[in-house]
Design goal:
binds FE2/S2 (inorganic) cluster; alpha+beta; five-stranded mixed beta sheet
Length: 152
């Protein structure tokens, strides 16, 4: 039995210790915003925060999340500048990669609200988007920095 704290709520989950956190979040807990892409830690679609740090939940065993804090896309408030900027700039196309992108961008701005263009591009380029929304993603992160009042 594993104990997880997801978006501020406690869950007790009966799963094999090697079960990827992604499937626990989606199937045991029922939060389906986090997506399955490659299943190999490459695309970033399954990103969530574990104790505030982005992890690829498809290759993170549930055992490593025991008694830890997890934030999923559902746990980021819609009033947060990152989500507001995403909506304002109409970033998504098909939308599939976007929860992972938003979670990563949210963590980046928490870590370094004044991240430079180079840093944003470098961090966000670890996420694949088959629709090629990279330009809008960069603009949205920079728009969120303005909404947060950290850049003019
Ligand atoms: S589904 Fe996890 S990195 Fe692609
Ligand atoms: S918006 Fe379609 S994969 Fe990124």
């Amino acid at each position: 039995m594993f104990e997880l704290y997801v978006n501020g709520k406690q869950y007790k989950v009966d799963a094999d210790e090697k079960t990827p956190l992604l499937w626990v979040i989606r199937e045991h807990i029922g939060l389906t915003g986090t997506k399955f892409g490659c299943g190999k830690g490459i695309c970033g679609a399954c990103s969530v925060l574990l104790e505030g740090n982005p992890v690829r939940s498809c290759i993170t065993p549930v055992s490593s999340a025991h008694k830890k804090r997890i934030t999923t896309i559902e746990g980021i408030p819609s009033s947060h500048p990152i989500k507001r900027a995403w909506i304002e700039l109409e970033v998504p196309q098909c939308g599939y990669c976007q929860p992972g992108q938003i979670v990563e961008a949210y963590a980046l701005l928490k870590r370094n609200p004044r991240a430079s263009t180079e840093e944003i591009v470098s961090v966000m380029s670890s996420h694949l988007c088959r629709c090629g929304t990279y330009g809008r993603i960069l603009k949205a992160v920079q728009r969120a920095q303005k909404l947060m009042g950290v850049k003019s």
